[in-house]
Amino acid sequence: MCGIVGLFHPLDPAVPDHVTLRRMATALRHRGPDGDGFHAEPHLGLGHRRLAIVDLAGGAQPMSTPDGQVTVCFNGEIYNHALLRRDLEAAGHRFRTRSDTETLLHGWREWGTGLLDRLAGMFAFALWDVGRGELLLARDRLGEKPLHHAVLPDGTVAFASELQGLLVLPGLSRKLDPQAIDDYLALGYVPDPATIFAAVRRLPAAHFLLLRRGEEAVPSPRPYWHPPRRASLPATGAAELLAAGLDRAVRAQMMSDVPLGALLSGGVDSASVVAFAARARAEEGGGALDTFTIGFEGEADERPMAARVAGLFGARHRSEGGTADYLSAARDVARVFGEPFGDHSAVPSLAVCALARRHVTVALSGDGGDELLGGYRRHRWHALAEAVRAQIPAPLRRSVLGGLARAYPKLDRAPRWLRAKHTLTEISLDSALGYYNTVCKLHAARRRGLLSASLRAAVDGHDPADRFVALMRDCDPDDPLLAAGYVDLHTYLPGDILVKTDRASMAASLELRPPMLDHRFVEQALALPSAAKLKGGQGKHVLRQAMRQHLPPDLLAGGKRGFAAPIADPLRARIATVRARLTGAAMQDSGLFDVAALARLAEEHGSGRFDHGQALWQLLVFEGFLAEAAGVPDAAAVADPVPA
Predict the structure, then answer these.
(1) 3-state secondary structure of 437
(2) pLDDT digits (tens, 9 = 90+) for 568-624
(3) 350: how many CB neighbours lie within 10 A of its CB?
(4) Arithmetic mean of pLDDT, 259-275
(5) Which of 7, 288, 415, 639 is deepest in the core (most CB within 10 A)?
(6) Beta strands 260-263 and 362-364: pairing type?
(7) How many helices (H) and strands (E) does the chain have?
(8) Known catalytic residues?
(9) How far is CA 430 from the centre of its chain?
């Protein structure tokens, strides 16, 4: 795992400044503590920070072909590089290293952008072909590895793995994107291709950008892969198919020349990965697998089940517990992520990655299973709501159920069965808006009420729900579970889950690999019919069936539990400090919020009558982001809104 940076000017043949490249790379030192490397020539400069995983001696970057015509700067792992190497050698290519990086150089010469279709792995890379005058920026299919880019005022295209690598550039505007702020408050993250900064964009997952010498205009990113949009596999034999696919993915992702372990929770996804990894390790005679768990006292404590699973497979298990100081963590999250990030499970994620890094350099994880196999409660509810919608005409739903929803009180502290407002609201809405309603953290009236008048005007007409509507329009309308998973693969997974795992692991200089996001496994899982995924009101049915011979029945029967301690009560216990931060200098000076409304939000939460824990957490992280940005020119200013 590594960090990459670069500067490219399509018209100016000057060699980019080495000091600037080094400054950009140094900002990403945590992504690659094992060394750095640089390459500069007319039009182009590349910088690299290396976390050595494969071919420790021969894999240094940037790496060039012997004739110096093609150079690559790469972050990630290509799990099928040995197979690609055989094909390329048969075609006459000669390799000098064992590194998967070199596969990109020869693969580009042999297949051009067709190389991307052949790669199995997680990656973000920049590849320069001086003869063609082309610079290829590419990102993996699911968005496991990040790549940010911006056009500077002088026409230079700058790019980096993380925002921190770009923010050292004095010519980069720090003005905030007003629509990104609105999206963040609605979803808890800034969705691709936006970032919190108006001048910086993220290359979307499964896209590439091809820049050419002599062409001033930066083209739009182009997709090279789409996940399945309709179920095409039978339910018969689905468990065996899924088990074989996961076993293959786990074995492929265990390639490493450094110590490798696995993160282990009390859930079926990470336990399934550990089961196959432990079996593969035993077959290779590699000794016990290292596993790692973080837990909190109470309902979120998964340590007992994790220890049981580890013992079942003879793993060398390490776990830690404790309490989370969310007020301090809000500042830490803002610093590590480089922009506001509202998923508070980032806090235990940072802790478990730090624990794992003390013992291994690479760790497998169970991320992705919920999105693919209907593992979230909202997936099951969406399928049920769609069945209800099909029985009630849309006008009746909107008028009658919508009216009841508006009249029903908001009972945050009541038992779940009394909180019918959300249920009525979702069913009254059409499919895509109903699903958006289940993932939205702060609905329009609430979040707009927290904004200053100027920011409200800047986001007028913007609706974060629009992307959900567009995505669901692409899917089979008769398969609500597939539609929900398809939406998650384009929103929540790359915007929240994979941002969290990448930044948390890289903050500890740990490489994290999720076998369930092997694109071949994704294609299999998403294409299974809903009947294979959802049964008896429980998701991931097919995975539970696939793992019957490997995991304990009570673990397989268990439901989804969040990887974080509840946040409402800890914030309520320190509500005076919460209020002070939200009404302090950083928020007031930004001019982005109605500070009096923020104070009321804190007071309502402190009273115990309302649960605003999630909203307060997101605002605390935003305050931490503004505090981190203090003294940076334009950090609190917003750019002009993007035209609709």
Answers:
(1) helix
(2) 999 999 999 999 999 999 999 999 999 999 999 999 999 999 999 999 999 999 999
(3) 22
(4) 95
(5) 7
(6) parallel
(7) 32, 17
(8) 2
(9) 27
Whole-number Å distance between alpha carbons of 386 and 381: 8
Give kind and range of the element (H or E) at residue 492: helix 492-492
Domains by residue range for the chain, with CATH: 2-223 (3.60.20.10), 238-374+496-557 (3.40.50.620), 379-488 (no CATH), 568-628 (no CATH)
What the block records as the tokens of 520 is: 């071949």
Please give the share of the chain, as a percent, with pLDDT higher than 90.
Answer: 78
Helix axes 595-607, 613-628, angle to 10 degrees: 140
Cα angle: 631, vertex 634, 636; to 5 degrees: 85
User: For the chain, what is the mean pLDDT?
Assistant: 90
pLDDT classification of 190: cutoffs 50, 70, 90: very high
Write out the two tokens for 515.
């076998």
Above 70 in pLDDT, residue 422? no
Q: Are 415 and 422 within 8 A, CB to CB?
A: no
Say how many Å lie between the first and final Cα of the chain, rounded.
38
Count of alpha carbons within 13 angstroms of residue 272, beta-carbon side? 30
Burial class of residue 279 (count of CB atoms within 10 Å of its CB; 0-12, 13-18, 19+) = middle
Q: Which two tokens stand for residue 304?
A: 């007992």
> Of 51-65, 78-92, 466-480, which range is least confident?
51-65
Res 408 pLDDT > 70? no
**Residues sharing a CB contact under 8 Å with residue 51, sequence separation 6 or more, in sequence order:** 1, 2, 31, 32, 33, 34, 361, 509, 511
String of DSSP letters for 573-637: HTHHHHHHHHTSHHHHHHT-B-HHHHHHHHHHHHHTS---HHHHHHHHHHHHHHHHTTTSTTTT-
Supply the pLDDT for residue 478: 83
Asked whether 86 and 103 are in contact (CB, 8 A), the reply is: no
Name the residue with higher pLDDT: 624 or 641: 624
The pLDDT tens digits of the residues spanning 42-72 come to 999 999 998 878 767 777 899 999 999 999 9
Closest CA to 517 of 497, 542, 487: 497
User: For the segment 226-253, what is each residue's pLDDT rounded down to a tens digit?
Assistant: 999 999 999 999 999 999 999 999 999 9
The reported pLDDT for the residue numbered 427 is 62
**Sign, CA torsion 38/39/45/51:** negative
- Specify the pairing of strand 207-212 against strand 200-202: unpaired
Are 501 and 356 in contact by the 8 Å Cβ rule? The answer is no
| pLDDT in the model for residue 300 | 63
Q: How confident is the model at residue 171 (pLDDT cuts 50, 70, 90)?
A: very high
As to burial, measured by CB atoms within 10 angstroms (0-12 exposed, 13-18 middle, 19+ buried), residue 57 is exposed
Nearest CA-CA partner of 307 in 587, 38, 483, 316: 316
What the block records as the tokens of 623 is 């305050």
- Nearest in space to 515 (alpha carbons), one of 245, 261, 227: 245
